[in-house]
Amino acid sequence: MQFPSDFIEKYNNLLRDEAEDFFASFDQEAVSAYRTNPLKKQQKDFPDAIPETPWGHYGKISGKSADHATGLVYSQEPAAQMVAQVAAPSKGSRVLDLAAAPGGKSTHLLSYLDNTGLLVSNEINPKRSKILVENIERFGARNVIVTNTSADKLAKVFKNYFDTIVFDGPCSGEGMFRKDPDAIQYWHKEYPSELAQLQKDILSDGLKMLAPGGQLIYSTCTWSPEENEGVVAWILENNPDLELVAIPKLNGMSDGIDFPETARMYPHHFKGEGQFVAKFQDKRVPEQTRIKEGKSNLNKEQKQLWEDFAKKHLKTRLDGLLQVFGDNLYLLPKGLPDLSKVKIARNGLHLGVFKKKRFEPSFALGIALTSDEVVSSIELTQDQFAQYVSGNVVTLDQTHPNGWYQLLVDGNGFGFAKVVGNTVKNYYPKGLRFHI
Ligand SMILES: C[S@@+](CC[C@H](N)C(=O)[O-])C[C@H]1O[C@@H](n2cnc3c(N)ncnc32)[C@H](O)[C@@H]1O
């Protein structure tokens, strides 16, 4: 791999007698890995578990596999898996992922929350926020909203609100060079300092949203000390209530420079790509915050149509706030402030659409529910799965009473579909379809 001479000089100076091993690691292949999703009912035994992680495995997952399409697995390299693991938010807590697309940290945080508390997953870039929505939807969590805005706008609505904030923001991306060698062309000597300034700007607003007693996790996928420890020093200087928490060094993590509490991941020590993580605890006494919650806005007919559907098809009561946007019905986690002034990319769990005098359940609802929570489900074979994902109707061996059924693949939800006799009509969203 060809590096700019300034990059070589910088890491020769920083790593000294380790520099040779560091540069040699770029001649090896990037490490692929994935996490399994504990929110899914039907788990599988996957090989090559990553030590010291609850859900990590080494290896590649095909984007066309049923495991991926049902959200049972999420591809994420091993070093990136350490960020949400360091955060490990408690059940019931309020969590913000400030720079979230494509969703690696967010989906991992949702694994810890286990459908309790709430996650606000924010991405400033509209195009990337759509990918984030897709990945979160597939993961099947019910307690997450996706916003598409800047930290300063978000801070106006969520002041002192979050128990955990994860900021894995824009960085110089040196740790991604092995995965994406084209990224090297953007690197120049001043690049890390420019990104460090951007991170500080975003954090100045981001930190206004931390609740007293909360925790901040700051991470990057780069090794430059101007970002990483430089930003840690700036956070400590400007936020006297924050103190560093020591991160246990797992699987070959190294101490951060001058801040041994923080963690660096180098590919010649840690089997993965590049990453830096720091964890801060806010020393202020936690306090009860009062917020003006958003309200349900369903009319009488919409309420009735949803209740009729839920009574007939669901065995579980979905807890949260019901809201309609246009004809779409969403379930928002409880305890959110009024979000009418925030640009939203996904307003909670999409339950379905009101169409004239009926309610049509969404794909998102059918992938978020387990088979125990639904009255009628139909398991697809692998061949039927291949037909369904390519947009075709599926013919079943048996006829069924006409109506809505949750589809299952390997025991996990895969949306709702209307069945007429022995035919499953296709409700797989057009944008997700693919051919096997
Ligand atoms: C390293 S990526 C995040 C990866 C993500 N945490 C994950 O695990 O999948 C950084 C993100 O920061 C976003 N970003 C760029 N400028 C930003 C800004 N000014 N404020 C907030 N986010 C920004 C980028 O669009 C990008 O999606």
From TrEMBL:
Keyword set includes Thylakoid: no
InterPro entries per record: Methyltr_RsmF_N, MeTrfase_RsmB-F_NOP2_cat, MeTrfase_RsmB-F_NOP2_dom, Nol1_Nop2_Fmu_2, RCMT, RsmF_methylt_CI, SAM-dependent_MTases_sf
Protein name: 16S rRNA m(5)C methyltransferase
Keywords: Cytoplasm, Methyltransferase, RNA-binding, S-adenosyl-L-methionine, Transferase
Enzyme Commission number, as recorded: 2.1.1.176
Family indicated by similarity: Belongs to the class I-like SAM-binding methyltransferase superfamily. RsmB/NOP family.
GO biological process terms on file: RNA methylation
Single Gene Ontology MF annotation: RNA binding
UniProt xrefs under Gene3D superfamilies: 2.30.130.60, Sun protein, domain 3, Vaccinia Virus protein VP39
UniProt keyword Cytoplasm, yes or no: yes
Record-listed S-adenosyl-L-methionine binding positions: A99, A100, A101, P102, G103, G104, K105, E123, D168
Enzyme class: transferase
Location of the SAM-dependent MTase RsmB/NOP-type domain: 1-283
CDD domains: AdoMet_MTases, RsmF_methylt_CTD1
Active-site residues annotated for this sequence: C221
